[in-house]
Design goal:
46% helix, mainly alpha, 4-stranded antiparallel sheet
């Protein structure tokens, strides 16, 4: 019912325990698979109990102070253990690893991974919501604690989750474990780097310590340990003044300004836009994405800067009271700051007025890339390679069966055809998933020669 259509049945040892293996065609998240198997068996009214019916991987709890491992199990077909393959009537078949691997590959090719991926999401969502359903009398604090622990147990499931998870870990450590200062930062860092999906999805591994320190500081300013007095007046409706995103944005702007000044002082500021962006990013220790944000462009980009000054540049005195509005301070190039006389009004130059833009201005306004979503408002988008998506395995298998029936071959002819083209392998279950498409191609060519 969850997409696992083929299994391998083994006897674990002379004690006659049964192990049912479920090969998969691609890696899946361990905890999500454990929850999906548990939900599936429970829905079929199987009772999961130690020593009777066990699941590997099992649904384990999340360890806050230490990492809790999944249950281990014996590898199959160990010598002199009595482990062997069984048929549907539980009769021993073989203890050959070669036959085990062949059956494994055959089972992999028949699994419905689309159905399984859908079941994994449903199982994880059901598990996440269960505490509130089964215990409706929980207090808001207890519900919050369980939500924090569930998020930590799930870990990273994709990109752009680092800030959320660091806040979750820091909140849990400060509020419920009563950690502060360096202890809280050490706990948050150690917990974060051991969460599921950290190595795969976290894009801030290089600066994870800086982010941990920032979130721990923010959490301690806003939250407090459960057993202590509140740090803020809960009676007021005024929102807290702390805004971490604004603080980070202003910090980035300050670093860009400092980098610009340092490069100008060293006379190392490139004139080309790309080289200038790379130099500033290295000097300020920020990403190019932050550098190209619209609110930061005016700090460094030649076509957006309000002021661009060389270190030796100084404002020259105004020669006369009737100075023209196009007269500029120190230079006349585009983008320089106008020197406004104290006694005269400065009029907006024609090129800066809000009128119909020229083609040149429009061209400048679109110098940034438009993104990667494409122009077509439809789903799914065409792949970047322009190649069609791969044919699902079950469709390839159905097409192979139809071709073989059309050729009216006997079983021996099919096996001989396979052995001649796949290094002696004469059974379809011995082929890998990508080889099935090649096999279908050979059958199509053979069908054309018989027409």
């Amino acid at each position: 019912t969850i997409g696992i259509t083929r299994t391998l049945l083994l006897r674990s040892s002379h004690s006659n325990g049964l192990h049912l293996y479920m090969p998969l065609a691609e890696p899946v998240k361990t905890f999500d698979l454990a929850v999906a198997l548990h939900e599936c068996l429970k829905a079929q009214e199987f009772e999961i109990a130690k020593g009777q019916l066990e699941i590997f991987p099992n649904v384990k709890t999340y360890g806050v102070e230490r990492i809790i491992l999944y249950n281990g199990h014996r590898l199959p077909l160990q010598p002199v253990t009595g482990s062997c393959l069984l048929d549907d009537n539980l009769n021993p078949m073989s203890d050959s690893l070669a036959q085990f691997f062949g059956l494994w590959d055959g089972a992999v090719a028949h699994q419905d991974m689309d159905e399984l991926r859908h079941a994994l999401k449903i199982g994880r969502d059901n598990h996440r919501q269960r505490p509130r359903r089964s215990q409706p009398s929980l207090s808001k604090v207890e519900v919050w604690r369980q939500d924090l622990e569930t998020d930590m147990q799930t870990g990273w499931t994709g990109h752009h989750q680092t800030n959320h998870l660091l806040k979750v870990i820091a909140c849990h450590g400060h509020v419920f474990l009563e950690l502060e200062g360096e202890d809280l930062m050490a706990h948050t860092l150690n917990t974060a780097i051991h969460l599921p999906g950290y190595r795969q999805y976290c894009r801030h591994q290089c600066d994870i310590r800086i982010r941990v320190r920032a979130w721990c500081k923010a959490v301690q300013n806003y939250y407090w340990p459960l057993s202590s007095d509140p740090k803020r007046d809960q009676r007021t409706k005024v929102p807290p003044s702390l805004n971490l995103n604004d603080q980070r944005a202003e910090d980035a702007r300050q670093r860009i300004r400092a980098a610009m000044q340092a490069l100008q002082d060293r006379e190392a500021l490139p004139a080309a836009i790309k080289q200038r962006a790379e130099a500033i990013a290295r000097e300020a220790h920020i990403s190019s994405k932050t550098l190209y944000r619209s609110e930061n462009l005016e700090l460094w980009h030649p076509e957006h800067c309000l002021v661009i000054r060389e270190p030796e540049e100084r404002c020259k005195p105004v020669e006369s009271a009737g100075v023209s509005a196009s007269r500029e301070c120190g230079a006349t190039g585009e983008g320089r700051l106008l020197k406004q006389p104290h006694s005269q009004e400065v009029y907006t130059s024609e090129k800066s007025m809000k009128c119909e833009p020229s083609d040149a201005v429009l061209a400048k306004s679109n110098f940034l890339s438009r993104g990667v979503r494409g122009d077509d408002l439809r789903f799914p988008q065409v792949s970047e390679s322009g190649l069609p998506p791969p044919i699902p395995v079950h469709e390839v298998q159905a097409a192979i069966q139809a071709k073989v029936q059309a050729l009216k071959w006997s079983l021996e002819q099919v096996r001989q055809f396979l052995a001649e083209r796949f290094q002696g392998r004469s059974h379809i279950w011995e082929l890998q998933a990508h080889e099935l498409t090649t096999y279908l191609y050979y059958l199509q060519v053979e069908g054309l020669t018989h027409v």
